Structure formats: C-alpha cells, structure tokens
Amino acid sequence: MSDKIYDLMVIGGGPGGYSAAIAAAKEGASVLLFEGEHIGGTCLNVGCIPTKYLLDKAAAIEKVRDLVGKKIFRESGLYSFQKIQSGREAVVKKLVGGVEYLLKANKVDVVRGSASVKEAKKAECGGVCYEAENIIIATGSVPAAVPIPGVEHTINSTQALALEKLPKKLVVIGGGVIGMELASAFCSYGSEVTVIEVMPELYPAEGRKSVGYLQKELKKQGIRILCDTKVTAIEKEGASCQVSYEGAETGRIEADTVLMATGRKPNLTGIDTEKLGLELTPRKEIKVNEYMQTNIPGIYAIGDVIGGFQLAHAAYAEGEAAVAHILGRKEPVDLEALPRCIYTKPAFAATGISAEKAEEMGIRTAVGTFAYSGNGMALAEGEDGMVTVVMDLEKKTTLGVQIVGACGPEMIAFASLAVKEKLTLEQWEKLVVAHPSLSEMIKEAALDCFGKSIHGAVR
C-alpha cells in the first residue's frame, strides 16, 4: 500500500491525461500520473505531431515543385526521406522532453508503468497499490483493424510513420483523417497512392460542397480515391501484395505497402470495467456526462477512451471539465464550436455545423463562399482554396465555417470564436481584419451570406 493518498490519479499520459494532471497540480492538488509507454501518448509520439512533421516537409516539396513549374526555380532538387524521418524523431523527442519537464516542474508524481484499476480510489502498478480520492481514466485508443483475409500483411499508422524506405505503391484502407493525411504526405514524397473507403463519400458529417472540393483537389494531387468500395482480400506475392476490392469499382491493385487506417478503438487495458461496474456505450466506450463523470463516484474519463471526436484538443477540454468538477466547480465541457482539422494538401478545417446539418435541424440558412483566388495574400503565396460560412437566415448569426486550403487549421480558431459567440452579420461588418491576410476570406464569406462581400464575385 502506498504511504501517500493523492487527491487525483490520472491513468494515461497522453494530451488529455498530462494536461489534466498539470491543471490539477497548478490548483494545489496532489497528483499521480501513470504512463506505461511514452509521455505524450499517441498524439506526440505516433500521431498528431510526427504526422504533421511529415506533412510539413511534403508541403515544402510541393511548393518547390510549383515554383519550378512556374520557372521561378530552375529545378526541384533532391530530398532525403531518411533525414526527414530523423528530423521527425528529433521533434518528437523535444516535445516529449518538454512535457516531462512541465510535469516535474508542477510537482506531478509520475509512475512509468501501466496501472490496473479494479475499484474506486485505488490503482495498482508493479505490485504497489496507490490511492486517491479521484481517478481520471485517460487511456486513449489503439488502431482498429477490419477482419479482411490477409490483414496480417498490412501495417498500421504507427508503423507507417516509422518506415525507413518510401513505398513505391501504397494502398490505404480507410479514407478517414489518419488515412488521408498519410496518403497526402506519401503522395507528395512520390508514392503512387490509392485510398479505398467503404463509405459512399469522404467525411459525411461535413459540408458536402467543401468535401467535394477537397476530394477534387486530392485527386488532382495524384491520389486515387475509391469510395463506396471495400477491400475483400490481401494476398502476398513476393515482395508485394495484391489487394482485391469490390463495390462502386471492382478489381485488384498491386502495392508494396498496405496501410490499415480504419479508425481507432478505445484502449481499456488495465481498466476492469466489469469489476468496477463501469457503464460503457454500445461501442465499448466509457460513458460519461458533461462533467466527464462515469457512473462510479470519483471516477472520470476523458479523451479517446470515451469516443466522440477523438482529438487532442477535445481531450484537453474534457480534462479541464473533469478537473474543475473534482475541485468543486461545475463547468461542463462545451465542444459545440470545436475545430475539426485534416492536414492534407490542401488542408481542411471546420467548426460548428454544415448547411446540411442545419437544415436537418430545421434551421433556414444563408451560405456564403469566398475563393482563395480573390484574396491578395493567397495569390502572393500561390495558394488555392475555398472558405464557406453558414449563417442562420432569420437570426443572421454564425452557425459554421469550413475552410479548404492553406492555413485552414490556423484560421479556424478565429472562426470557432465566431461560431461560439454566434457572431451576427452586423458584427462581421464592423470587424476589422488585417490586410493582406488569409483571414480576410472568412469575413468576406460571412458577408457573402447576405450578398455584402466587397471582394467576392457578384451574385
């Protein structure tokens, strides 16, 4: 038995877990954090950050190619995939080290090991029992695979990030965020990429016009996208694989690497849900309320293990809500204006609801758009794209924003605030945005909802 009883134990050191631990410690709570693998979890080590490093270098390569095509650069030159991979490792190491420093500086005790939770207020690790008044489960998720004959010949996203050699022909099973981001990166590096997605279209929850534009641009980049199609078998033939598929299209395709990117599932390792009596959803996710409470008093859950958006910044917000409740404050999590980003080339970013969703809810909408081709900064930077703003036709308030194009994930923070505060047409009209900047396009698209855009196409 531990000789110290903590105010809080956090199970899992990913973004939600470590940020919740630090937030609680900053308010004077005694905190113990368990992490069985790497501080920073999937996001810092084998997810968000390393993927974005690969995508950033891919974008640079595409930029140089574009300038060569315009004869501004004479030649595109060569690049080293090995150097890119070593650079990725260096960035991950630096960020993980930074988080470890923050945990130590904020006096969060860290146990390097996987915790087992079988009853409230207690956790066991390495034969030692630890106690706390409250527990936050932040064990994240693991890659999910579909039962396809020959699935053993595939790699997951973690293995894809660690490839030492660039695939010549890459087949990606799954057109979700992970699949499309890696497809975009490897396409820019020179791989011949095919994405096979079982759903009739990519990202069905997002605005159809924006997604259609994104898909068109990805295909233009060189990615073959087969929607409404499923993989039926993967057969190994020498050093390569034959991938059979059927649906909207039927056939076989050769690949030297097959990436399984069919989403992620909750990681409940070490959490004895039956003995605890922990209530789960039909998808085997931990069920919580708006304060991140489970059905067991003193046990909270956040992040991928509860399903939902499965985004690091969602986990941050959920962790803040859980810590606030533990400390006696009722501050429910609010993800209504949560940014949703896909870091492909071009990037996609959205917040709030689409016009289609608004109409399902019985809201009459006004939809405005603005093309990158009408923006001075976008033209100077050689970028194409489109911004869409959805407003309530009667109330003239902002409901949602979608951006397809460069810096979309950066601009969406500005747009998220507009959605959260339900910015009105009058407020958009009075808002002054820096010129030249890409952010001007959000205001122009908002004004276009009611035919008031200054620089947009005349309707």
Written description of the protein model:
By secondary structure, this protein is an alpha/beta fold. It folds into 3 domains: 5-142 and 265-326, FAD/NAD(P)-binding domain, CATH 3.50.50.60; 151-262, FAD/NAD(P)-binding domain; 346-448, FAD/NAD-linked reductase, C-terminal dimerisation domain (Enolase-like, domain 1), CATH 3.30.390. It is 34% helix and 25% strand. It contains 14 helices and 21 strands. Strands 1, 2, 3, 4, 5, 6 and 16 form a 7-stranded mixed sheet that branches. Strands 17-18-21-20-19 form a 5-stranded antiparallel sheet, sandwiched between helices. Strand 1 (5-11), helix 1 and strand 2 form a beta-alpha-beta unit. Helix 3 (48-69) packs antiparallel against helix 4 (81-105). The relative contact order is 0.12. The model has no long low-confidence stretch (mean pLDDT 96).
Can you lay out the helices and strands and say which pair or pack?
Blueprint: E1 5-11, H1 15-26, E2 31-35, H2 41-46, H3 48-69, H4 81-105, E3 109-112, E4 116-119, E5 122-125, E6 128-137, E7 141-143, H5 157-161, E8 169-173, H6 177-189, E9 192-196, H7 208-221, E10 224-226, E11 229-237, E12 240-247, E13 251-255, E14 257-260, E15 264-266, H8 273-276, E16 299-301, H9 312-326, E17 340-342, E18 348-352, H10 355-360, E19 365-371, H11 376-381, E20 385-392, E21 398-405, H12 408-420, H13 425-430, H14 440-448
Parallel strand pairs: 1-2, 1-6, 2-3, 6-16, 8-9, 8-14, 9-10
Antiparallel strand pairs: 4-5, 5-6, 7-15, 11-12, 12-13, 17-18, 18-21, 19-20, 20-21
Helix pairs in contact: 1-9, 3-4, 3-6
